Sequence to fold (1451 residues):
Amino acid sequence: MDKGTHVKTTSAPSVSQINAEHVTQLANKYWAPHVTEKLPFELKVIENIYLTEILKSKFAIRKIMLLEFSQYLENYLWVNYNPDVSSNAYLMSICCIVNEKFRENVPAWEVFKRKPQHFPYFFNRVLEVLVTEDKPGLSLQEQTVLLLFLDHCFNSLEVDLIREQVQKLVCLPMWTCLIPARLQKELKVPKLKKFWALIKKNYDKMDDKAFEEADKQRTFLSRLIKKFLGVLTSVSPSGEVSMEKVHYCERFLELMIDLEAQLPTRRWFNAVLDNSHLVVRCQLSGLTHRENEGHLFCQLLDMLKFYTGFEINDQTGNALTEKEMTNLHYDQITSLQRAAFAHFPELQDFALSNVAAVDTRESLIKHFGPLSPNTLHQVAAYLCLLPELSEGQNTTNESEFLFEMLVSRHERRISQIEQLNQMPLYPTEKIIWDENIVPTEYYSGEGCLALPKLNLQFLTLHDYLLRNFNLFRLESTYEIRQDIEDVVSRMKPWQSEYGGVVFGGWARMAQTILCFSIVEVAKPNIGENWPARVRADITINLNVRNEIKAEWEGLRKHDVCFLITVRPNLLYGTRFDRRQSLAEQAGLVYVRGCEVQGMLDDKGRVIEDGPEPKPKLKGDTRTFRVWLDPNQYQQDMTNSIQTGAEDPYETFNIIMRRKPKENNFKAVLETIRNLMNTECVVPEWLHDIILGYGNPDSAHYSRMPNQISTLDFNDTFLSIDHLKDSFPGHKVKVTVDDPALQIPPFRIKFPVKDLKGRKRKAEEEGVEEAGDDDTLLVEPHVIPNRGPYPYNQPRRNTIRFTPTQIEAVRAGMQPGLTMVVGPPGTGKTDVAVQIISNLYHNFPEQRTLIVTHSNQALNQLFEKIMALDIDERHLLRLGHGEEELETEKDFSRYGRVNYVLSRRLELLQEVARLQESLGVSGDVSYTCETAGHFYLYQVISRWEEYISKVRPKHGQQVHVQEVASHFPFHKYFSNAPQPVFKGQTYEENMDIAEGCFRHVKKIFTQLEEFRAFELLRSGLDRSKYLLVKEAKIIAMTCTHAALKRHDLVELGFKYDNILMEEAAQILEIETFIPLLLQNPEDGFSRLKRWIMIGDHHQLPPVIKNMAFQKYSNMEQSLFTRFVRLGVPTVDLDAQGRARASLCNLYNWRYKKLGNLPHVQLQPEFCAPNPGLTFDFQLIDVEDFNGVGETEPNPYFYQNLAEAEYAVALFMYMRLLGYPAEKISILTTYNGQKHLIRDVVNQRCASNPFFGHPSKVTTVDRFQGQQNDYIILSLVRTKAVGHLRDVRRLIVAMSRARLGLYIFARVSLFHNCFELTPVFSQLTARPLQLHIRPQEYYTEVVQDRTRSPYSDQVIKNMPEMASLVYNMYMSMIQKTQTRQQVDDHLLAAPFQAQLTADAKSKLEQVVQEPSTEEADVEDHMEQEEAKQEHPKMPEHPGRDSDSEDSGAEDDA
Fold:
């Protein structure tokens, strides 16, 4: 790949350039959406644009970008397409724009779905052009574009329109391309033979035209392979080479890899690919011998080789075990030996040898090397690899090809899992700076890369884990590369005059190594050839500031560091050139990872982590013991011995540490590798869905065989009417007719449908019918009395759930997979908490695991769970972050242990009180065990005696008073609200008595549970017991699950249900790992429910490297993939966060998103925003001093005019009395965030009139949060940038509750097709800020009324800054005048009250314009009390300090 192509081709055109472009002028005539009178369609226009704009510019991205942005495809190309105008230029134009849409990551197929009738013809034309040999055809560059289009089609199998076409290319009839002998061999399976006969029959019935069409489709890929091989053979091993040919070959291999990596395309194609011997021919091609041009081709070839030999049965799709792979290998070798024995006497030695002696490459070369080409061909023909040679005919194949074909097919291969186990987990310099594997941040999306892709489907679980493993490893490598380059550039390594290394700078995260020595190389474990353990000591000098010294000394066990060797070529004092590779300038030679074991004390012993204080060491020299990667060490030593290369471990001169939060990659990689080495048991009902096959709704509760018919909804419903409203499509039949008894909680019996449509008579006979299919049988039931104390009363839900929320709760309670799509403000967390509560009460023996993306989401969940009727002792929170919980309670492991121990003491005191009340002697409240004996022998006996007295005998009635008089625990309950027995009837009093006994019984039940904590003495043992046995609801982040999987499995951790919040923000692999935090029971997973709650229309997981994000689709969460596959979802459809008008800005993206009633009724949602005419407005911001967006560093975009305008609006709102904490300023770029913070710090921070807004941050960072008023800066003025990702737009539009004010260059954004639904609403209002400075903010919403004054229109940013400045000065003057009058009055203390004259003078001095202003001034006075009024900075027309502020910050 031409690396130079990545950087400059993506520079986006500015608005002025767009307007000046020929394309734009044509668009304005023919297809621009905003033009009313357009010229009629002309084919010549398309031809001219293709020739002059696309072909002439050699497919320059900038030109294609412009065309795609102008809606060329939507409004001109496709709407006018039909078979009569289908020229090559027309085809190429469409394919270019589709490819560009994929590059930009915007929906590509929507336009074709609107007019699908011509798509089959168009697709067949593309196929025809790709394989045509006629001259003049398309150039290789044009064919490469078509190959990429075809690849996009094969990766879009979820789109019905596309799937219908591509399926015809990869179905069973394509086996007609196999050689006859191979075909017969493949058709040995009876089922396939039957299908083949049927296919033949159908083809025989076709007329000539249909047959020709079908034949073209079934032979297309075979013909394309032949064409590719023709191009490949034309590349010589040396000399000049056309890069067009190289790029064509790379794209072709990418297409082959993608076909092989998906089961629907691989199933029949793999045999055709094998039949063509493509891999062998590629291996022997001239391109593989070219070191630079062929580098990427070789990497892609390795990937193709991996997938062609993948451990899977192509027809059934079942993964092959290691044993099955070994058997297949033996079968191949023995069939070759049989052939040799029967037909080739010259191979007799080979035929009679044992398999292990002849299945290595060396022995195969020895036996087959001397054979003639004709003999080799005959051997291959006997194995059905080549057609038979007729008598006297010589082979046309080269000896080298025949030989390689036989050897590569029969040599023993190392298994994939062995390869993985031998792979070092830390990246080295070879991977870190290889841009085909870890591209730079400048990756444009044009080139092809040697990276795995995460699409819809995977071959096996092993394939799934392996792709995720590789991508996770490479994404970590990219971040490590950035850290290394940052550290090395700060340390400034230069070559000293004596040839050594001298460091001209320093870095907080790195130190120079004084001494490095290997202290242990342990013997290999049995069956392995790498050391079991390699340890080294690293000595550094910490002559640095105390806080940095403390950070180094605080390195913990298992923290990962990197050892670096630099040998700089630059002389002392030379500056690094940012445009050149830092690795070459700094002489980065080696990078190796290591894991800290601990720091050594004075005696050379490792200081262990623990509660004991660490010893204080003298001096600044510190030595750390580290573990090195044994696999890497073994590879390095082998290389050193075999090739005489230097030992890298004698050269290290820098050690680098990383921030702990970003440094957990090794633990996650080990977790994934361990998963691949274990029997990976995913629940049977989930297996196919995770791989992307089968019926997407097969795991929905309605299709699960163990569906539960009767569910207790506990406190979900507020009343019977709420229940009836929640099931609009059902009839509701209540078991009791008395309305007074129809109160929650309710049990509901649902009609369970027979899955297969057959009546299960045996079951039907035993199960009472719930009625018709749409009838729900509702049974109100009373929660048993829990005792006489107020805290005994259960806490209840108070939220009136909507019907879709109820459906989500119902689905979550049933077994199976539940996916809930929760748009902004629809109560996702409330639904999650209700599901957890209902599972806890319905299935008390089951355990639920809660997983979220962030600690913040986990804390929000926990705070709501604590408000429901869930016993505190059953809650546990793992990982860091519990300290952020807004509660005094500690839900961490040790916090829960302490809670249990203190609760045990409280309960034992209650036992002592009970003992005293019963007059029992002895020390029964000493331990849980003695308390248990007391309960058994003293408490139960008294209760049983009491029951025998008060239970009615033989129809005799018991007097109401007797229930109370015989009660044995009166004294104990003397501290409860009196009287305890206040019932009017026998039943009521008996209920109270039983409630009292339940209270007593619960004390002893809990003590029995806590008994284990008496037997276990250490805190660690107690915390393990708590995790494994006691806790019923366990919460952790997905990162914690990935890091600690090994420990949890070792402990025997078990759970039945998983609930995931923010599921659309979690990486695919981090979503998958929590499914496997327990060992299977008898080969089956005990997981019963998987509830995922998220919103795939908002932002996906954060992937820092653009190539992994775009090319590998690593940002796709498992939640999003399931939605793409068609897994059923429950879409929450009523929001209660924002005004209805604000909701309209984003509800178009969802199936059916409405508003909850309170949004239209509550005053705060109906009242206007004081001082602002509109509740949302888009404000057009022109260049300031001739400057729009700037880019001081790559991707670090800033826009001073928007920053100043946004801050001026914030200041204006503050002057009107808006609370600062209700306003947040958001932006779409990091650079702008820093600039706005600088402007805020300069103009507002030190001034109590203004202060800081609640947050100044990016849209991405603010996902999941909200505020009343949002000020948003879109920054860009040259190109739309990443706001074209509609998900980012949805997040930006949905953060505000009451007011949203957007600053942007309107001419840029309103043309963008993807943004049309939002910008059409925004541009319908005036594009200049409309304000009403006479209105003031009040806390009382009802007082907010519109003033009679007309709007004031602000034309630009300097005018707004000037207005704010004048308002501020006016307010300061008035406040100072009032302060002077107050001071004058205070100076005369003997005046008890003001005279009428003084009052009138005061009124003359301070003329108050309105009562609202007076209120605000009073408010401001309080803030300003006893402070001098700071001078407000002048507006930016006269201030240049913030011009370049923020530029030094890193992007």
Observations:
- Confidence is low (pLDDT under 50) at residues 1-11, 757-772, 1388-1430, 1434-1451.
- The CA atoms of residues 1067 and 1117 lie 5 Å apart.
- DSSP finds 58 helices and 30 strands in the chain.
